Amino acid sequence: MEFKDYYKTLGLERTATEEEVRKAYRKLARQYHPDVSKEPDAQARMRDLNEANDVLRDKEKRAAYDALAERVARGGSAESGGGFQPPPGWDEGFEFHRGPGQGPADQEDFSEFFSSLFGAAQQRQAHHRSQSQPQNLRGEDHHAAIEISIEDTLQGSERQITLRALEIGPDGQPGFVNRTLNVKIPAGVHPGQFIRLAGHGMPGQGGGAAGDLFLEVRLAPHKFYRVDGLDLYMTLPVTPSEAALGAQVQVPTPAGSRVEVTVPPNARSGLKLRLKDRGLPGKPPGHLYLLLDIALPPADTEAAREAYAQLAKAAPLNPRHHLGV
């Protein structure tokens, strides 16, 4: 069995923050997900990514893994002809709260390396807790995703969603059911954050409380705005005369209002104008950036063609001068 470097799997340094772990995983998961990737080893790569993410995003598992990695680096691992074996008692002093099924993928699909570390450790701790605590066990937490609009992040809203969830039926057998829930989306929530619905996870055992449902917030594509962190970008069409002479133009904002923006004289396509604090809410809030795009009137009438001819005479221009022609 080979020792796995989870940081290398995600392309991270060992000092990576939780946010860096999350971003690296999401980027690579989009690249190697078997539903979209054409790579021959996409399924295996996705399993490795899920496994690394499961360990590094969990504080208890990451602390234990880091301690083991340091021990391995000092030559304290049980390396032999049979490969890596975790040293006896390597996990003493660590408690792993998250159980199977709560990571980004079912942990039964993870490698022998993962199972040798956390599978046995969690089984020992679960057995210890079952011997020392009454059997009123809290239900597992569930995770799902919810897609909201940019307007929802600014103003808040309420949404009704339907989820397909695994539940235990009256006959004691698991089965899928559809659940419809009303979700209150608080103003100011960001992509990647979670909305917690208390008591909507798996039922508890022996009178224990039900787990919670955590909804990961994702932003739906918008017809006007492109999201980059807390900043928003919008293409702003202007006429040739507005770009050349300067103008005051009306611009819609994500909050639903309109503001007047000054287009400077001699503006060029691609010029970026900033509306401070008009992006997504935060501390500090993001900005709204306007990218100018000069819209050319069609030369579909005699008057329009004459106007273009007069413009060519009055303001001669060689836009290919930089090409040497």
From TrEMBL:
One of its GO terms (cellular component) is cytoplasm. The keyword Cytoplasm applies. GO terms for molecular function: DNA binding; unfolded protein binding. InterPro entries: DnaJ_C, DnaJ_domain, HSP40/DnaJ_pept-bd, J_dom_sf. GO terms for biological process: protein refolding. The keyword DNA-binding applies. SUPFAM superfamilies: Chaperone J-domain (SSF46565), HSP40/DnaJ peptide-binding domain (SSF49493). Residues 5-69 form the J domain. Residues 32-55, 73-109, 121-140 are annotated as: Disordered. Keywords: Chaperone, Cytoplasm, DNA-binding. PANTHER family: DNAJ HOMOLOG 1, MITOCHONDRIAL-RELATED. This is Cytochrome C biogenesis protein. The lineage of its organism: Bacteria, Pseudomonadati, Pseudomonadota, Betaproteobacteria, Burkholderiales.
